[in-house]
Amino acid sequence: MPEPKGGARSPGSVQARASLVATAVSALLVLAIVFGSRMLRDFDSALLPYAVATVFLAFGVAYRYTVWVSSPGARRLLRKGWRSFFSLRNARRAPTALPRMAATYLGFQKFLGARSRARWAAHQLIFWGCVLAALITFPLTWGWFTFTAGTGSGPGYEMRIWGIKVLGFDALDAVGWVMFHGLDLAAVLVIPGASYFLWRRLKDRAATTGQRFAYDLIPLIALIVISVTGLLLTFSSLFLHGGGYEFLAVLHMVAVVFTLIYLPFGKFFHIVQRPAAVGTQLFTYTARQDGPVLDCRRCGETIGTAPYVDNLRGTMRDLDLGFDEWAEYCPRCKRALRGAAYLSHVKKGFQ
Predict the structure, then answer these.
(1) Which of 121-130, 142-151, 317-326, 339-348 has the highest mean pLDDT?
(2) What are phi and psi of 170, to 5 degrees?
(3) In the beta sheet, which residues pair with residue 158?
């Protein structure tokens, strides 16, 4: 079998390395669950399916992430991003750049606002709802924190992390209500956001072009099912005296487990990829301070800094594409030149 060209690695070696990394990450999570729950003393056996699903999630995320960063383009950008992240020179020159980019690019996703305010608002609802749900669900599922009654007769409760008391609260006051209904609040955030995107996927012609049911619609449906069934569980316990609770609990569990297992292999994987883009943004930002800005060779529009274009050329060489000089053209001119080449060399033969 011939060796891969450039910086590419053989598929077999990449898969073997990814499997080894994923197995190690899964094993570390199992150990963290065991020790974090104080040798399973705080582990709730009723939550075992959720915990098993998170182990599969860890395996899938580690496997796909390793495969992703093994590609020449992703590996090169990730290396550049980490160098910018750990650069003392960048920290001294622009100390607020990294936290500002993390807040605007990860937290508030301002780049989405340039496309559509409605899409930005819906994405924010989904993002913060999922963050809130993850912060509650994962530690609770792993037995890392527990809620126990402070006394046998009163409404006082204690929240313990790894067996250590960190907060005491009254279950009947506002803090207690928020503590026990945090997942309901997360569901209230997620439902309108996911519903908007689902409506857009079904009605907007630009969104429906090229969409795939399993990749684009299933994630939104899964989020809505999880959120609705979670709210129905609360409704059943408060107003129906537990009527239908067991059926709803099973349905909710199936939806959550399916989503956790599906996450690494569908559209949700961009959640894991997105933080790496902050390093890329930091590299681009600092590169502007270090080198000249290059213009498109055809139209003169600014295309980026010299380090950015050199990085793009290097990626093309790693992939052995043979046209790294195209890095000096803007995207619009690349499309125009490609169309002109098609017209003169391909379509001409049919005249």
Answers:
(1) 121-130
(2) -95, 125
(3) 148, 168
**pTM, whole model, 2 decimals?**
0.78
Average pLDDT over residues 102-120: 81
d(CA 23, CA 55): 10
Write out the two tokens for 256. Answer: 């959550």
Within 10 angstroms of residue 144's Cβ, the number of other Cβ atoms is 20
Burial of residue 131 (number of CB atoms within 10 Å: 0-12, 13-18, 19+): middle
How would you list the strands of the sheet with 164-170, edge to edge?
A: 145-149, 156-161, 164-170
Q: What is the DSSP string of 153-199?
A: SSSEEEEEETTEEEEEEETTSHHHHHHHTHHHHHHHHHHHHHHHHHH
Please give the full DSSP string across 128-153, using - where no structure is assigned.
HHHHHHHHHHHHHHHTSEEEEESSSS
Would residue 101 be called left, alpha or beta, if left means φ above 0 and alpha means ψ between -120 and 50 degrees? alpha
Residues 298-338: tens digit of each pLDDT: 887 877 677 677 777 777 776 666 666 777 788 888 888 88
